[in-house]
Design brief:
Helices cover 39% and strands 15% of the residues. The protein is built from seven helices and seven strands. A seven-stranded mixed sheet has the order 3-2-1-4-5-7-6, sandwiched between helices. By secondary structure, it is α/β, with parallel strands linked by helices. It has one domain: Rossmann fold, CATH 3.40.50. Helix 3 packs across helix 5 and helix 4 runs antiparallel to helix 5. The structure holds S-adenosylmethionine. S-adenosylmethionine binds next to loops.
C-alpha cells in the first residue's frame, strides 16, 4: 500500500544529512541560515554546538517539549509501519534497514528535544508558519526547506508552494529545497511549474544533483538565487 499521510508529520534529520541534502560546504555553514519547517531535526542543535548560526521556524514550536515528544512517539509507529510496507522505494545503503532508520531519526529528534527549551529562549526555535513570516527582506543568506515542500504535494496546493517559496526568497538571498519527490518517491508535478513562475519573476531556479539519495531518485534539490 502506498504512503498516505493526513497531515504533515514531525520527523527529524541530522546535520550530516542536511549537509548532504543541500550540498552545504564548510563555507556555507558560516552563513546566516534559516531552516523553514525544521521541526524536530537536530540540524539547529548540532550547528549551534559547533558555533554556527541557524534559526529554525515551525508551527510545531508552539508546543512544549513534552507535547512534541508525545507527537513524535505517535508519529513513529505510523511512519515506521508505512516504511516497512514501502521498502522498495528506498536505497538501503547508508541507512541499512527500517530499524536503523527508526533509531537514526529518534537519535536526531532526541538531540532536538534536549536543546528545544534552551533554543527557544535564545530565539533559535521560532514558532512561525509559512507562507507568511515576520522576518525582514533578505535578513538571511540562506533559507533551507527539508522534507516539507514538494514532499507533501498530495496535501499542500500549488498556490501554497508558490507563496511559501516566494516568502523564503523574500527573507533570504538564496533558497534550497529538498527533496523534489512526494512521499511515494514520485517527482512532484509542482517543480517545473514553480521553476517557470520563478523564472518569469526574474529569479534563477535550477535543479542541482546532491550526494544524498535515500528515496530512490531523490538526489536533487531546487536552488533559487
Ligand atoms: C517531515 S518534517 C521535516 C523536518 C525537518 N525539516 C527534517 O527534514 O528533518 C516537516 C515539518 O514541516 C512542518 N510544517 C508543517 N506546516 C508548515 C508550515 N506551514 N510552515 C512551516 N513548517 C511547517 C511540520 O510541523 C514538520 O515539523
Amino acid at each position: 500500500m502506498p504512503y498516505k499521510y493526513d497531515e504533515i508529520v514531525p520527523w527529524g534529520r541530522s546535520m550530516e544529512e542536511y549537509m548532504w541534502m543541500f550540498n552545504l560546504t564548510p563555507e556555507n555553514l558560516k552563513l546566516k541560515i534559516i531552516g523553514c519547517g525544521d521541526g524536530p531535526a537536530s540540524f539547529n542543535s548540532e550547528m549551534t554546538k559547533q558555533g554556527y548560526h541557524v534559526i529554525s521556524i515551525d508551527p510545531l514550536y508552539q508546543y512544549t517539549t513534552q507535547q512534541i515528544q508525545e507527537r513524535i512517539n505517535e508519529t513513529y509507529d505510523n511512519v515506521i509501519g508505512q516504511t516497512y510496507q514501502n521498502q522498495e522505494k528506498f536505497i538501503w545503503e547508508r541507512i541499512p534497514s527500517v530499524k536503523a532508520l527508526g533509531d537514526l531519526r529518534m537519535a536526531s529528534m532526541k538531540k532536538f528535544l534536549i536543546d528545544f527549551e534552551k533554543g527557544k529562549k535564545e530565539e533559535r526555535y521560532v514558532e512561525a508558519t509559512l507562507p507568511i513570516l515576520s522576518f525582514k527582506d533578505k535578513e538571511f543568506d540562506l533559507a533551507l526547506s527539508s522534507h516539507f515542500l514538494f514532499l507533501y504535494t498530495d496535501i499542500l496546493t500549488f498556490e501554497f508552494h508558490l507563496d511559501a517559496i516566494l516568502e523564503m526568497c523574500r527573507i533570504a538571498k538564496e533558497v534550497r529545497i529538498f527533496p523534489l519527490l512526494n512521499v511515494n518517491s514520485i517527482f512532484s508535478p509542482y517543480v517545473e511549474r514553480i521553476i517557470t513562475e520563478l523564472n518569469s519573476l526574474g529569479k534563477k531556479a535550477i535543479i542541482e544533483i546532491v550526494s544524498y539519495e535515500f528515496q530512490k531518485g531523490g538526489n536533487q534539490m531546487l536552488r533559487i538565487q
